[in-house]
Every structure is written in structure tokens, then in C-alpha cells.
Amino acid sequence: MEKKCAIEMKGITKRFGQVTANDSIDLRINRGEIMALLGENGSGKTTLMNMLSGIYQPDEGEIYEDGSRIYIRSPREAYEYGIGMIHQHYKLIEVFTATQNIILGLNDGKMDIAAAEARVKEICSRYGFDIDPGKKVYDMSVSQKQTVEIVKVLYRGADILILDEPTAVLTPQETQKLFRVLRNMKEDGKAIVIITHKLHEVMDVSDTVTVLRKGKYIGTVNTADTDPQALTDMMVGHAVSLNIERPRYPDPQRKLIVEGLTVVDEEGIRRLDSVSFTANTGEILGVAGISGSGQKELLEAITGLYPVKEGSIRFIGSDGSETELVGKTPKKIRETGIGMAFVPEDRLGMGLVGSMGMTGNMLLRSWKNGKGALLRKKDPEALANRIWKDLDVVTPGVDYPVRRLSGGNVQKVLVGREISSEPAVLMTAYAVRGLDINTSYTIYSLLTEQKMKGVAVIYVGEDLDVLIELADRILVLCGGRVAGIVDGRTATKEEIGLLMTHFDSKESGE
Amino acid sequence: MTTLIALVVAAVTFGTVLMYGTLGEILTEKSGNLNLGVEGIMYMGGAFGLAGAFYYEKAAGAAVNGPLAVTIAILSAFAAGMAASAIYSFITVTLRANQNVTGLALSIFGTGIGQFVGEFMRVSEGGYVALSNGLKTFFASPVFPPFLVNIPVAGRIFFSHTVFFYLAVLLAVLMYLFLQKTRCGMYLTAVGESPATSDAAGISITAYKYLATTIGGGISAIGGMVYIMTTAGCVWNHEGLSGVGWLAVALVIFCMWRPLNAIWGSILFGAMMIMYLRVSIPFIPTEIYKILPYIVTVIVLVLTSMKNSRDKQPPASLGNNYFREER
Ligand SMILES: Nc1ncnc2c1ncn2[C@@H]1O[C@H](COP(=O)(O)OP(=O)(O)OP(=O)(O)O)[C@@H](O)[C@H]1O
Ligand SMILES: [Mg+2]
What we know:
The complex is a heterodimer of chains A (510) and B (327).
Chain A lengths: L4 E12 L2 E12 L2 E7 L5 H8 L7 E6 L2 E3 L4 H6 L2 E4 L11 H5 L10 H15 L14 H14 L4 E5 L7 H16 L3 E5 L3 H7 L2 E6 L2 E7 L5 H9 L17 E11 L5 E11 L2 E6 L6 H8 L7 E7 L5 E3 L5 H7 L1 E5 L15 H9 L11 H13 L16 H14 L4 E5 L7 H16 L3 E5 L3 H7 L2 E6 L2 E7 L5 H8 L1 H5 L4
Parallel strand pairs in A: 3-8, 3-9, 6-7, 7-8, 13-18, 13-19, 16-17, 17-18
Antiparallel strand pairs in A: 1-2, 1-4, 4-5, 9-10, 11-12, 11-14, 14-15, 19-20
Helix pairs in contact in A: 11-12, 12-13, 13-14
Chain B lengths: L1 H29 L7 H23 L5 H29 L4 H26 L8 H8 L5 H4 L4 H6 L3 H19 L1 H11 L1 H6 L4 H27 L6 H4 L2 H11 L4 H20 L7 H22 L20
Helix pairs in contact in B: 1-8, 1-11, 1-13, 1-14, 2-3, 2-4, 2-11, 2-13, 3-4, 3-11, 8-9, 8-14, 13-14, 13-15, 14-15
Bound molecules: adenosine-5'-triphosphate and magnesium ion.
Magnesium ion (MG) binds next to helix 1 of chain A.
């Protein structure tokens, strides 16, 4: 059966100064179908979709909707053509409620919040969403914010939906929920484009896959006829191996001893409850758990950013001396040699200055090491160049403002900088969020490289498949408590999954 | 007691000037435009407001009509303020130049124009520009009938003010309703919070920024006119007007961008500014009094940022220009 074509893009080219983000791309989007758009970081996926949502204007090329030529000059016009986009960085007004955000920009007579709320509720029940229409956005979790974004688009009657990396910040459970909704919408005859770097999601939810590489259109395949390896090869342009090596470090030593760690949040809820473990040199300690089980608090408590109520965190120096970290300032702890590559949800908000280039951002971390009043740019520049090369950052140069880089490339700069600071304990949380599959594997091998240098690596991750391939031991958190510590070489996904809900099943309720 | 009442009345008189300046700037800043040119705008409002009333009286002669003169003064000041902020909008919104620099330039430009118009009138009219005494009293006298004004204590405090004060309060209430209850008001807030979001939602950023800034500038300019026509006694007086615009900018922060706070905030600031005339404490130089409002503003800023309430923050994109394709 021939699918009905919703949007056809022909020969689309878009340039930003010296960067050609899209190079004469042809693309078809069909109704009643979920299309995955795949490509490495900086390959131009967001740019291409932004031309459908009216944010960018193509420099060359034509766009057709249902066979007739259209010109999308602004986001408003995009809505008129029934195109709605959920952006990589959410576009919501923080101080507004969900409903206010949803009706933003609409001109349907009198402003009637109550009626709007009723319609929001109706849309929610139809597709199985769950939001509180009167809640302010700044009080919402990431997944709730995303739900608001989706409802916003549906409320406007969009029948062509574009989702730019919607799952990057969702937990697997939330992702499954989202996919159910997307399938519902597909049954409804809507055309859906989803951008994601997670290949198992592509295999799971999409009907067809379109691949871009360095701004060029490579091809479209049916999901049923392909597999992750083939897609990766298409994306990268040559065969790559998707294997994680896990060598053994000859002589592991204890590096960090955590005992009875308990932290309490502002509301008095125990976020961590007598957590004990050790992290060893030459070992990657994976941390698994449903999101919000205390992962963030654990890392923050170790780095001194979260107040500790009880317990001790001891750091063993190379000469065997023990240092108590509880009660020390973050700066002091850093100086002991504990590094954290914490990758926040808001990539630009934490740790990077958008208007500076890579070199400048490297300097931010190292300026304290220099002596005298003058900046020394040599080392940071060398480091910037190294990250540029190692992680394949797509940028015209190390002095190009990082704000202009694609989402994933911004992340590479952040992660690259943290890993290169060569700490004794390296902690990362969600380090591969938003990174393409190839770069993710580069990060894994960089972490392994650090491990083999004798660094104690703590890796908080969501992807269990990766955890059981990468980590030597896996600590499973459940509701702030340690549900178990398993050997990464022998553990199964099922075993870890069970541990993740360990306490919930034993004790019903709170 | 009488000193206290006199203090309140004087505070309201000066506060009215500030209230216009502040309300206008609140509207402007709600769109994300930080217009630092209020000082210049208020100068222009003062000069053009006076000119409007003066030339109207000159043309009308004996047939001069009080309410009409007031209306003309308001409209001339408003138009002058709109023109000045239209320039600001063009430079920042359309040409996307730095808002601070543009605002400061406008401040210098506006004071210059105001001075020029004021002096030009004086010279071309043979050394002295003033309205007739009848019109002067009309501008400066209470709107309410004498029996209300003469009620002991309450009459002076509530009913003895000029029409400009009551108009300003009305404006503040209307602005509050506009921002809280209407769709346009909500969209304006959205534009000031996140232009990218509003743009993606289909709101015209340019239209909102231009309109809010020009209308806001017009309102601020009325403040300058009110000063010249009430406190300064309908003659051009640039000294008294100097610094008022800056005070209004500080007051916007003090009010937390809320029009209703501007009502009591400007009276409070008015009181602080005239205190040195009324209750002078020996050994304390008048300059100390005059920096009081700024000190209070800083304290308020510190307190609110300590409380970290998400609703009491400046518009999130304040001071930033918007360009759709920039990221
Ligand atoms: N507004 C802009 N100004 C300058 N350069 C831009 C702009 N938008 C995109 N680019 C450049 O265009 C290229 C493609 O970026 P785009 O965001 O489309 O990548 P992407 O495929 O979405 O990557 P990611 O997976 O990392 O999100 C990048 O090299 C980026 O630096
Ligand atoms: Mg992108």
C-alpha cells in the first residue's frame, strides 16, 4: 500500500556563515508513519527540522505539503500547515502554568483558562498523558515539561509532529510511555518524525529510518529490513565496531570508601539512606537505578555539593593515607583529586560559557593553575584541539562560540573537558545523553582508558545494556538505598531490573 | 501632625512623577527591553508637555480651556516619549544593537533635546515661558471639590491631589489587569520571559517589543511633564528633573515589575526624596537622603534574590535582543 505523503522536501540547503548545515537534502514524511531521523552529532538533523517548524528559512530548495508548494516563513505559519515541533531544548515559559503555556500564542477569541484546561484534560485522557494543568513549569520534572510540549502541539491541531531527541532526558519507563502515545498518534493518521541517538529506540518505535551524514542525505530504509549495526555504518560512512572492551586492571586498590551515607532534602525526605560501598582504582563502578533513586544526591554528596546528615566518605591517597571528605568544601574536595563530569540537563546552563570558544571554555577549568596575571592560552588550546580531534567535535575551529554548536557537540566539549582533567576519582552521570552512537562508544573507551590508568571511575547510567558491558561492578540504588552490588561480568539485565525495584516489591507503599 | 500631612502630600506630588516613569518602564521591561533612556525620555516629556500647553494657550488666548490644556500637555508628552522610544526600539529590536548602550545614548540624547526645546522656547518667547496664572493653578490644584478636600486629615491625604495622581493610580490598576487578565498581557509577559518560546508559539516578537516599548516610553514621558507642570510651576526647570529617570529605573526593580507595587513604591520613594526639605536632621547632608532610595532598592534586590522566589524575578530575557536564527 502506498503511504500518503505529508511533506516533501526537495534540494534543501542551509548555511550558517562558513558552515553548511544541510546540503541539498531530499526528504519525504508520510502520514500514519513514524520516521526516525538519524545522524551523528552536527549532521544537520535539528537544522533540517527547524526549517519545517519555521525557525530557519532554507537558502535553497522547495517544500511541498500534500503535493502543493508551501513557504513556511515563521513558526506561526508552520502551525497553520499543521506542523508542530518539540525542540531539543524545551520552549516553555517557566513562570507560567501548563495551560498558559499550551494556549500561548493562540488567538481564539476570549481567553478562557477554564475551557482551555478542560480541553487539555481531554487531550490528556485521549492519548494517555498525565499532567496537572495548573502547575507552574518551574515546579515540573523534565518528563512533565515534555508532556506539556507535546500537548501544546496537539492542542494546536498539529498532524505532523516532529520530536527532537525527546528521549534524551527520559527514563526508560517514561520513554515507553511516550512511545505508546506516539503509536496512538500514528494510528490516528498523524505523521511523526523522531530524532534519537538510541538505536534500540529506533528499532522499537519507527517504521522507516532516514540517515543524514555531514549535512547530506544518505538514504531511507524500512526499519524491519535493517539492524543497529547497518544503521551505524550508514551514519558514520564506514564500518564501526559496537563493542565495549572490558580489560581487567592488574592491581585494584580501594580509593573511596563510603559508609552509612545518609542525606536528607529540604522537605525532610531521606534521599540516601545508609549507603555504603567502596570504589576501587582501575575499576568502573556502574550505578543503576530508576531515575530519582538518589544517583544525583550520591554524586553531589561526594563532591560536597549536598549536605550530608550522617556517614563518612573517605578518600585513600596514593600513599595509603585516609582523608575524610564529609564537611569539606567542594573546592577542597576537588583539590584532593575527585573529579566529576556531571552532565546536567541544561547543557549550556552549567559549566560552559556559550559565547566563548572551546579554548576559552577549557581555560575556565584550568585558569587557577596558571601563575601571574596573564592568561596562558597554550595548554588550554592544546587540550581543546585534542578534544576536537578525539571526540570529532563538529566545529569550524576551537574559537568558534560553543553556543552555535549542535546539542551533542556542546555535550562533547563538556564531557571531554571533565575527563581530561585527570582526577583520581572520575564520576560521570548521563555522560552520553544526546551523543550519537559512535561518540558514545568513544566516551566508553575513554572511560576504560582512564580506568586502566588506575582511576576509580563511577559511572551513573540509564542504559542497562551498556552498564553490563562497561562496568566491572554495578551498584543498584532503589529509593535511596543500596539494593545490591553485582559483578558486571556475570550480572544479567533481569537481575538488575529486579534489584531496581527491590524495596518497592518487598514493602508495599511508602 | 500638620508636618506629617504636608509630608504625605508632598510625597504624593513627587511620587506621581515617579509613578509615570516607573509604570512606563515596567511595561517596557516586560517585553524584555531594558530601556535605560528613561531619564532622557522624561526630559523630553517635560519640555514637549510644557510646549504643548504653552503654544495651545498662546493660540487660544482668552478662550483657553483648562481640561483641554491638560489633555494637550499629556498628549504632547506622550508623543515625545513614543518618538524617543521608537528610535530605541528601531535600534535594538530591528538593528539588534546592545540595549544598555542604546539606552544610555538615548538618555543623553533626550536630556539634550529636552534642554534645547526648553531653552529654545525661552529665547524665542523673549526670555520667559510660563502659562497664565489661571492655567497654572488649574494644573496644580486638586480635582475633588473643596468640601472633600476640607475634611480634616483624610481630606488632605486622599482628596487634595492633582488629576495626574488619580490618573496614575488608574493606569497602574489598568496595567495590572492588562498583565494579569488579558491575553495580550500574558503574551507580553511571555515575550519578556522567553522570546524564542513565544516566537515558536506564533507570537510576533517584534510587534510586542515595539508596542510595549513605545507606549511605555510615552507613559514615562508623562512623568516629566507632570513634574514641570506641578512641582516646577509650569516653567522649564531642568535641575529638578535631573535624576528622576534613574530613580524610576531603580523603582522598577523595587516594585518587582508589578504595577500595583508602583503605587505605594513611588510614594515611598517620593517621600524619601523630599524628606531633606521637610524633616532635616542636623549634621546629615542632603546627599545622604538622596541616596536612600537606591540603598533601599539594593536591599530589596538582596532580599528577593535570597528568597529565590521564581515569581519575583526580572523578566528572564531582560536586556537580550532576539534573533530567530541565532542560538
Ligand atoms: N543558528 C546557528 N548558527 C550557527 N551555526 C549553526 C546554527 N544552527 C546549527 N548550526 C551548525 O549547523 C550544524 C548542524 O547542526 P544541527 O543542530 O542541525 O545538528 P544535529 O544533527 O541536530 O546534531 P545533534 O545530534 O548534536 O543535535 C552544526 O555544525 C552547527 O554548528
Ligand atoms: Mg540536534
